[in-house]
Amino acid sequence: MKMTRNQRFGLITLMLLLIAAYLVTVEPWKKGPSSMQTAMGPGTSPPAITIRWEGLSEGYPMAVTADTVLSYTGFDLGYSDLFEQAAWVAYVLTRREALAGGLERTDDFRPDTSIFTGSADLSDYRGSGFDRGHLAPAGDMTWDMQAMSESFLMSNMSPQLPAFNRGIWRRLEEQVRAWAIEKESIYVITGPVLSNIDSVIGENNVGVPDYYFKVLADLSPPDHSFIAFLLPNTRLTVDLQRFAITVDSLESFTGYDFFASAPDQNVIRWLEARIEPGVWSTQNH
Q1: What is the largest CA-CA distance in the chain?
Q2: Which DSSP string corresponds to 35-75?
Q3: Residues with Cβ < 8 Å from 125, sequence gap 6 or more?
Q4: Where would a tag sit more exposed on the chain, N or C end, judged by fewer CB atoms within 10 A?
Q5: Torsion of CA 280, 95, 226, 150, to 10 degrees
Q6: What is the rounded distance in angstroms from the CA atom of residue 70 to the CA atom of residue 79?
Q7: pLDDT tens per residue, the chain (285 residues)?
Q8: Are 214 and 59 in contact (CB under 8 A)?
Q9: What is the distance of C-alpha 134 from the center of its chain?
Q10: Is 134 a catalytic residue?
Q11: Which of 75, 80, 97, 134 is catalytic?
Q12: d(Cα 71, Cα 216) in Å, to the nearest integer?
């Protein structure tokens, strides 16, 4: 049946009214950053990739595993009383600090008296078959004597198999320093995966993690980018890139929410969902 002009006009008017009613109800212009991220799509860059870092706390991983947060000269850490080690450490490593390299290792391992409930002790590791593995590496603290010394506090140690600690974990730490020199400034978050701990050592029941992670954020404009690494606590001889994942993937595995307090959350979410090809190359390192 052919519609008259008035009927067509009435139908169009009704459709416009329905659309207007939907927009008023949903108010898509008031959607948060998460919705904006979805609307951008995985292959679309935000209009401006700018990150304003006002302090280390903006990158802290949000999780229930850290009972105490403490700040030291070279790093901050969130301590887990249950597993007697840091759930995470966080710091910014600059080109100047990475190139400083003038201080020798102090090797002054000692309990951390800043932990109210008491930290692990050297005796917990003795005869266990595990290294006292640094989370904030001594090699990243060679720019300041106090920073170096504090990196040997037992709160910064985690049980690592010797082949892991002295092998691929050390290679990753060296690679991070190479990236800091190349990129000028990077934010580093490191930690053990404390979920599903089924083994402990020592009288203080120090938890033995099955996995360790690092999250790296390039802070130097204009090429901000993120990358994460998840490595099993075992002997590994393959290339580091085999263990590179997105921050989003690491968040799913650990239950952490990284950079939750940072500004520019739409940009943060976009960066967490991807790894920029070639930006984090391990070639020649």
Answers
A1: 93
A2: HHHHHH-TT---S--------GGGGPPB-SS-SEEEE-SS-
A3: 131, 132, 157, 159, 201, 202, 206
A4: N
A5: 120
A6: 8
A7: 444 444 443 443 344 333 333 333 333 222 232 332 322 344 555 545 555 566 788 888 887 677 899 999 999 999 999 999 999 999 999 999 999 877 889 999 999 999 999 999 999 999 999 999 999 999 999 999 999 999 999 999 999 999 999 999 999 999 999 999 999 999 999 999 998 899 999 999 999 999 999 999 998 877 789 999 999 999 999 999 999 999 999 999 999 999 988 888 888 899 999 998 788 987 544
A8: no
A9: 16
A10: yes
A11: 134
A12: 19
> Nearest-CA neighbor of 154 among 50, 77, 94?
77
Which pTM was predicted?
0.81
Question: Strands 131-134, 157-160: parallel, antiparallel or unpaired by DSSP?
Answer: antiparallel
Here the tokens at position 45 are 């860059």
